[in-house]
Amino acid sequence: MTLISQTYWGGMPFRFQSPPKGAGLEARLLRTQDFRQISALYWTPPGNPRPKVAVLAMHPKVDFSHHYSFPSLVAAGFGCLGAQSRNPWDDTRTVHEELLLDLGACATWLKQHRGVERLVLLGNSGGGSLAAYYQAQAGAAPAERVHETPGGAATLLPGATLPAADGLVLVAAHRGQGHVLAQAIDPAVVDERDPLLSDPDLDMYLPANGFRTPPQWSEYSPDFVQRYRAGQRARLARLDAIARGWLSRRACAKAADQALPAKSQSLGWQRRRAFEPLMVVYRTMANLHYVARHLDPSPRSYGSLLSERPDLMNLQLLGFARTCTPEAWLSTWSAHASRADLLRNLPQISEPILVVQAGCDREIFPRTDHEPIRAALRAADSQFHVVEQARHYFEPDFGARESPVRDKLMALVVDWLRARFC
Q1: Which residue has the higher pLDDT, 294 or 397?
Q2: Backbone angles phi, psi at 296, to 5 degrees
Q3: Are 358 and 394 in contact (CB under 8 A)?
Q4: Which residue stretches of 260-324 are H helix?
Q5: Cα separation of 165 and 390, whole Å?
Q6: Helices 96-113 and 126-138, packing angle to 10 deg
Q7: pLDDT the model gives residue 171
Q8: Residue 259's pLDDT band (cuts 50, 70, 90)
Q9: CA-to-CA dists, residue 412 to 81, 244, 356, 377, angstroms
Q10: High-pLDDT (> 90) share of the chain, %
C-alpha cells in the first residue's frame, strides 16, 4: 500500500526540475562557530560570479540546495545559496538555537567572502520560522539574545556573529514546527509506551466520532472538536513533562557527580551523566483539518502534505517529531517551549517582509495560520499574498513539468526583490 502523497512520486517537490540555465555553481563546506560543518551550493547568474544581492535558503531538516525558486532568481540576476542544516534529513537532534549558527555561517560567508551587499532570507515551509527566529536574534543586541535553550543548555548566540538580513521572503510558512505538531498530534494515545492503546472518545479516525471513509470529507461536532483540542493540549503537556524529566535527571546526576572528589566519582554516575535519552512520539498525523474541511475552509484537497490517507499514515514511521531528544522536543516541537515561533518573532523584525501563502495548502490553513501570521507583521514594508490554486510547494500537477502557480509566485518574489534591493 502506497501511503505517501502523490506529490512526492516524481521526486521531492521542493527541488527544481532543471538547474538554472548557464548558472555558476560553487560547492562549499562552511564551518559554524561551534565547529560544525554544513554543506551549501552557491548558484550565481551567468557571467556574474559575485552578485551584490543574494538569497539564502535553509530548512531545519530538508535540503534546499536545489530549491525550486533558484532558476527564476538566478535568471533575474540574484545569487542563491541553498544550504543544509547540521541535521540533514533527520531532526532527531534539531535544536533551533544551534541552527541559527548555521544560518550565521552562511550569511557571514556571503558577505565577507563573496561580496554580497544585500542579503535576503528565503524561508519556505519550516524554513520560515527558522528565518524569522534568526532575523530576530541577529537584530537584537548581543547581550539580549537567547542565553539558554528551552532545555536549559547555554547557547553561543550572545557572542556569535549573526549578520542580519536586509529582508525576508516567507513562502508557505507555518507558525512553527511546534504549532504544526500541536494541531496534528493524536490525543487518543493513552500511554506513550503503548501507542496502540487508544481512547475511542478522542479518536478522530473512528466513524462514531464523525470520520468518513476517505476521500469523503468528515464532519465533527463542535463538542468533539473542543474535547479533541483539549486532549491534544494535555498530551503535549505530558510530553513536555517527559522531556523535562529526562533533562532534570541528567542534571541531578551531573550535580551529584561534581560534588564528589575526583577520585570518588563513580562509573555509574558518569554513565548517567553521559546517557542521552530518546523520545519516540507516535501518531502525529491527526490534524482534524486533514479530513474535515469545514473546520477551516479552503479549496484544498483531502489529506495532509505527506499523505492522502492520514488515518493510516498516522501509524507509520514517517511523520512529525517521530524521534527526538528531550532538547530537540523542547526547542523544536513543543508549542509551549519552542522559540522558533513565527508569531513571536515577526513583531521584532523591521526589515521588509514578503509573505506568500498557498491557497490549497494541506498543512497551512487560512484561519489557523494565514490570519494570525498576517496580524503579527509589524514591519512598515510588509506584504501578504495568497496564490489561490497553489499547493504547499507550488509544485506542478502530477505528471506535468510546468507550474503556472509557481510562475506566479516567482513573478511576485522577483518584482518585490528588484523594487527594494536592485
Answers
A1: 294
A2: -150, 85
A3: yes
A4: 267-274, 310-313
A5: 27
A6: 70
A7: 98
A8: low
A9: 20, 44, 9, 18
A10: 88
Three-state secondary-structure class, residue 141: coil
Distance (Å, whole) CA 96 – CA 321? 14
How high is the mean pLDDT of the chain?
A: 94
Query: What are the C-alpha distances in Å from 229 to residues 58, 188, 243, 335?
Result: 31, 11, 21, 13
C-alpha distances in Å from residue 367, one per residue of 93, 183, 296, 361: 31, 13, 6, 12
Task: Note the pTM of the prediction, 2 decimals.
Answer: 0.95
Q: Are 244 and 330 in contact (CB under 8 A)?
A: yes
Residues 41-65 as b/e (b if ≥16 CB within 10 A, e otherwise) read: bbbbbeeeeebebbbbbbbbbbbbb
Q: What is the pLDDT of residues 114-131, one digit of tens each?
A: 999 999 999 999 999 999
Query: Which residue segments constitute the domains of the chain, with CATH numbers given?
Result: 6-179+339-421 (3.40.50.1820), 183-326 (no CATH)
Q: Which residue has the cell 491557497?
A: 359
Buried b (16+ CB within 10 A) or exposed e, 108-125: bbbbeebebebbbbbbbb
d(CA 105, CA 30) in angstroms, rounded, equals 7
From the number of C-beta atoms within 10 Å of its C-beta (0-12, 13-18, 19+), residue 365 rates as: buried
Structural element, H or E, at residue 249: helix 222-259
pLDDT above 60 (res 1):
no
Query: CA 3, CA 248: separation in Å to the nearest integer?
Result: 39
Pairing of strands 382-387, 353-358: parallel
79-83 vs 37-44, strand pairing mode: antiparallel
Say if CB 174 and CB 129 are below 8 A apart.
Answer: yes
Q: DSSP 3-state helix, strand, coil percentages of the chain (rounded to 5)?
A: 40, 15, 45
Amino acid at 280: V
pLDDT tens per residue, range 302-351: 999 999 999 999 999 988 999 999 999 999 999 999 999 999 999 999 99
The SS3 call for residue 264 is helix
- To which residue does cell 560544525 refer? 36
CA 19, CA 7: separation in Å to the nearest integer?
20
Instruction: Indicate if the pLDDT at residue 270 is higher than 80.
Output: no
